Each structure stands twice: as C-alpha cells, then as structure tokens.
Amino acid sequence: MFKKRRMRNNKDKQAVTENSQDIGKLFAKVKKSSDFKQFPLTDEAGHLIISYYNTLVDQQQLQLKILMVFRETPYELDRLEKIDDIKKIIAIEDIVITDNRKEAESKLLKGYAILQMKENDQRVALIHLSNDKAGLREQNNVENEFSVVGPQIGFLENIDVNIHLLRQQINTTDLITKEVNIGSTSNTRVIIAHIDGITSEQHVNTMTQRLQNIDFDVIFDTSQLHQFIEDNSLTPFPLLLPTERVDRAVQALINGQVAVLSSGSPYVVTGPSTIIDYFISPEDYFLPWILGSFFRFIRVCSVLFSIFGTSIYIAVITYHYEMIPNDLFGSLSISRYNVPFPPVLEVIFLELTIELLREAGVRLPTKVGQTLGIVGGIVIGQASVEASLTSNVLLIIVALSALASFTTPIYKMSNTIRFLRFPLILFASIWGGLGIVIGIAFLIIHLTRLESLGTPYTVPFYPFRPEDLKDSLIRSSYSKTSKRPNYLRPKSIWRYHPHNHKKKKSDFDE
Amino acid sequence: MKLCFLLTFSLTFLLSGCGIHERIIDEVQIIESLGYDREEGKVKGIAIYPTFAEKGNVKLKIYKTVSDSYEDIIPRMNAKSAYPIETGKLDFVLFGKEYATQGIEDVITNFARNPNTASRMQLGIAENKAEDILQASKHVNLSFHLSEKINQNIESGNLPKMNLHMFLNNFHQEGRDPILPYFILEENQIKIDGLALLKNDKYIHHINLRQSLILKTLIDGSQNGQYKTKITQNKKKGFILLKNMDAKTTYTVEKSEGIPSIFIDITIHGEIEKASSRFDLKKDKDIVKLERILNEHFKEEVQRLISLAQGYNVDPIGLGEKVRANSNKWDYQRFMDIYPKVKTTVHTNFQILNTGIEE
Fold first, then answer.
1. From the CA of A317, how many Å to the nearest CA of chain B?
2. Which residue among A17, A351, A465, B263 has the highest number of C-beta atoms inside a 10 angstrom radius?
C-alpha cells in the first residue's frame, strides 16, 4: 500500500535514497515543534531512544505498552539485540521496521512513535500509538438526511468507524476496501469500497484512477474529492451522490456502485449515480411500495414545481394573461394592483429574500435560526405584501417553491434546484413561455449529455432502459426489484430470488 | 460553449425585437364582452370591461364608440382607455338583430384569425340592440357572467353545445347552418330566450327555449334540460314539466339521390319533475299511457321544428350533412334548392324513468 504511494510520489528516486540515509535530519526538523518529544527509554543515554509527537499519540498506550515494559521489567532488554526484536517485546500489533526516512516521517505524523536502538541509528521501529478518536465527535445520528422510519445511523468523521458501519451491514468478505492517500499536506486516508463479484471493475478502476490523479494540498471533505473526480465540472448537477446515511451507502454498494470514504468526512460519495437517485429516499424502501412510489412521485413533482413555479408566474403575468382562468384573473390582477415593479423584479426580490433567509438560517445557531425563520418568513413576507412590494400570490408561489426544493433527500441537489430557478426566471422574463421552453430545452440537452463515471446521467430514461424503470419514478414491489440495475453493469444481476418467498405460508406446518 | 454563448446572445437580441411586447396583467385593460349594433348606417361598439380595484369587488364598466365600420371599434375604444385594450380574455360577442341581419361574417372571421382570442368564446344575438343587453349586464357586477350564462344553459339547460369554434365549423361546413343564443330583456334582466337561426352569417329567425331543447336532442342528443308541455291525460288537461331529458337520435338517410328522405329515430328517457296534481302517475298503466301521449307530442314537435326550418330554408339540424355523408355525388347548391322538399319521418320512443317529484 505504501509502496504504491511511494511509487506514485517518487518524483526522484535518488532523493528518497539520499534522504533515507539521514533520519537525523528528520529529527532536527521536527524538534522545532514544541509537542515533539524525544528521550531514552532506559537510564542509559543514547540508547533505546523514543521519539513521537506528544499530541498525536495515545498517552495511555504509550505508558502501558512501552514505558511499563522497559521501566518495570528491565530483564526484557536482554532479549533485545537488534531493532527487529522489538516486535517480541512490545504488545502492539502494528510495528514497522524500516530504514526509510520518508516512511518514518509520514508515520510519525500519523501518530507512530519512532524507536531507535542507538542514537543516529538508521534502522528504526515505528510503533503505532495513534489516538484516532481524539477530537472527533462520537454521536452519529443522521442530521441532514433525516427519515422518520428506518435506522438513524449516519457516518462519522472517523473513517475506521465508517468502514465498521459498512461491514456490519455488508457482512461478507466480498466487501473490498482499497486505501489511497491523497493530499500533499494532509495526507488523508481515502478508501474506495466496492463489493467483489458485483461491482463492475470498470467503475472501481475509474474511481481509483481518478482519485490517484488528484494533486491537492488538504482534503477536508469527500464533497471536495467529489469535485475533483466528477466527469464534468461545468454543471450545477452533482454527478456523484454524497450521503451521510449508512443504509443509503449500503444500498448503493449492493446495487453495484462504488463508495468513496475519506478520513475526516462524515459523507460517503457513491457513484455512478443517475438523476433519479437524488429523488430516492431510503424511506421509500421502508414504506409499502404503493406509498413509497406515491411519495417519490410527489418529490419529483415538487422539484419540477420548485424549478418552474416562479418562472411560469413571470411568463404568465407578463406575457400570457390569456391563459389565466377567468376566476383567477380578478384575484391575480388585484394582488398586483399596487405593485410598482415589473413581475421579474418582484420575483427576483422575493427569491433573493428567501435565499438570504436560507443562507442566514444555515449560519446561525439552531435556536436563533428558528426565530429568524419566523421573522423572515412571516414578518418580512407579510410586510412586503402590505407595503405593496410584492403580490401575495407570488409570496405563496415563492414560499411553496422554496419548501418544495427541500423535498429532495440530497442536500446537494436542493442547492442545484435553488440555482436553476434563476436562469429560468431570466429566460421567462425575456421571452415568456418561449423562454421557459428554451430553458427546458437547454436543461434537457445538458442533462442528457452528463455522465457519472462514464455512465449516462439520465439513464433509464435516456438512453431508455425499460428494465430499470422499476425502481426509478416508482418504487416497485420487492418481488419486482430483485435484479440490479443494468446500467451499472453489475457482474451478477440477481440481488435475491423473489420466487423463493413468493408463496405466503399461512400455516406453520405447511 | 462558444456556440452556446453566441446562440444565447443572438436569441436575446434578435428575438427581443420580434414584437413580443410585455402585457403585464395589471397594465392591460381586458374587455370581457363586446357588442355590435347598427345605428343609422354606422356601427356602434359597446365593450364591457371589469375593474379589479378592491378585493372581491368587481365593477363592470362600459366603453361605447361609433364608427362607420366595425374594424376600428377597438382602436377607438383604446383612445378612451388608460391601459391598452386587450381582447385576450374576450369571451362574449353580442350582435344586435339589425347588425346580424346584415351579416356577421367579417367580425367572426377576424376573431377566428386572431390568435389572442379564445375559440371557446360565446356569441349571441340580441333581440333588439346589443347595447341594451350589455347596459343591463353592467349592473350584475360579476365578471364574465354573460358567457357563463350560456355555458350554464348548455350544461344544464336547453341550449345545444356551441361556441366560436363550433360556429365556425357550422359556418364553413356544407350542409349545416349555424345557430346562436338569442338574448332578450325581461324586466330589465337578461334572458336567453331560445336560439337564433342563421343562414350563412345572417340572422333569419329565432325559436323559443322549448324548441331549442328539441333542436338540442336533434343535434347532439341531450342529457339534460327541462321541458314544459300541456297534455291531456284521461280527459284531464294540465301541464307537465319534464327534466333530465336523456335523448339519443339516429338518422337514416333512405334515399340520397333525387329528393332524399330521412328517417329520424329519437329515444328519450325523461323524468317527470312537476305535474298537475290531477294526473295519475302511480299506476304503470297510466305511465304507459302518458308515455304514448308524450311520444305523439314529441313527434309532432320535431316535425313542426323541421318544417319551420325548411320554411325558412335554414338547416340548423344538419340534415344536409347527413345526406352528404351518405351520397357519392354531393352538390351543395342543388341540395339547397331541394332542401325544403326533403322528406323526414320521425319516430320517437319516450320512456319515463321515474315520476319522483322534485329533488
């Protein structure tokens, strides 16, 4: 694993060998930091020197596993003739013996302690003492992708816990995790997970290759990786699906997708994804399929409303009054009676107000946020109608479309929807209904050209895959969705065999 | 990308000059009804427009103007209006009888050509002057009520289906003449009093509401409507009101060459809504007797209507259309010559579904 990294990183192999000669130089550098500790384990100076970052190692382990051994039972020292024997004495599983300075440096920064037999010894033992959990949050409730039914377990910043969560559900040796280190400064552990025998090699290879090609300093979050590895960055649509829900990631893996986890990020990125994935909530699978389908359909409709609601309002009010029903004409006309702005300005004013409230609401602490919501939503909305800055019909439409944009289970998609309104508003204000049609045409052309890890984004609608429609706009019953989606090119197509439990047994001795 | 950019920009600049002008809802003056009258050789136009100043309080107002021809009526009104007059929500056009006798084709074809106006617009003919009717309708203070009046009577009353679209269909079709609702003033209230029969675009005659129900059954087969008639049962005279007349009519053209004869078979299912208390409605025997009486009555009425239409040489039922559908050699000119002589045999089958009293 590290060998691989070295192979990739060694811009100059010569430099590595040269550096490896000199572990002293490393110490000279790290000694500048106040939290670096170096002292001999025994009374004998210049012998058995341990060096570590105080802040990175687990103090308890250091005391129990190393100091106790050498201080309390000095006879152990006799068994220690060369550095390789250290494994016999110290009861820590992860001990690496190396004379490579680069490796020593990277491990030192990961919380390993360096043990030298003698001062200036090039061959050192690297003892794993790191304290992974320090400073990371412990609670892993789902926060952003909340669902009423189903498990509430989300991922954490700790990558090992995340893998643990995955392994709990995918309890098979086929779950393969590949580790890559990314980030010239952060050296972040990034894990690519897939299920052997299900996931197409192509996806795994594409993902691995794209991750390995990243050259960046600090990786803060998987959503950052997401931007580096997606197929097209000139799009507002998320091309890979970020999720904090364990069940969602498991579902993706089971279907034959690849998941990417990154240390320090509670979000797992799965791919290749299609546009319909962003409308699927895990709750759909926990509800009976009729209800699940219905709510999924409502979600799709509300997203369409959210995108087109205000632009249709502009087009109709500005250009196509003919299409307003007779009964509605009066109330629409009255609601705009005192408004001095053209409908475009009115809409932009109100949309920006809502966006402003949303941005402010995110930044504020939860308790203040609620107050802000009330102040913003009710007071500003009502007051702007009273002051004839906007019409109250528009207030309803804008508020509804803001609400509707939250129905997407994936936050990234709801951002996209927020954004997409504005070009459509402009189109509608310039060309009315024709503008909206032009906007839709642009949108559809753009969507159909998108790819996620080389898989079309709009599959199963375009290219049309009738087999895969079963779990797209509607969530079919489990007896129908026993096959994995074809567009993921899974190596085995059957998830389970529905005919085995088709017959409902009504008597226990049947 | 460059292409996309270029396209967006060229569309912005080229299309924005293409006459799509803004018509913001509160900055246009819609008119909901329009009337045309002829006065001393000039055309008088009357338009009703709603004003929505306050919530739930619609006020109807009127523009009137006189011109020597109909074309510039709206531009002349425009000169009186604060906002540009738009015909996009116009859904009722009324013609004075005098105007209609001289022909309404110009107005109709121009509305048909205008993409802004709806083809579901209703048309009508006023007994005297369109101005009187519209003036009276101003006090109703309910927008679009005139066309609603017609629609309501189509849905649940005695009027056959009609609107501008169907008028144009009848107007351009060979073998059928258009009909329009006929408006009168009764106690200064607007009433639809039957149908006006037109030949081409000119008013010929009008029939009353009872006859228009008969015409409705003949044209589209009615499903509703009310019909009052005077009958004699068991030597007792009295009135009977029928409702929910569910009628089906089939036409059989027996001879399409020479002078055609047409067999009309009407099946009507009706309910008795109100009847004079003298009538016996309890026994089956009496019901059967009543059915026979009504059968005879409807047969006579249908025959009378057809001969009336033939007398005026108009064809609102579309007998010509039936003949045309059954003939290889269709000559409209010839048919119009022989139309008054076309023989019709009517067979009616009236069934009383129930005699329940009012709902």
1. 5
2. A351
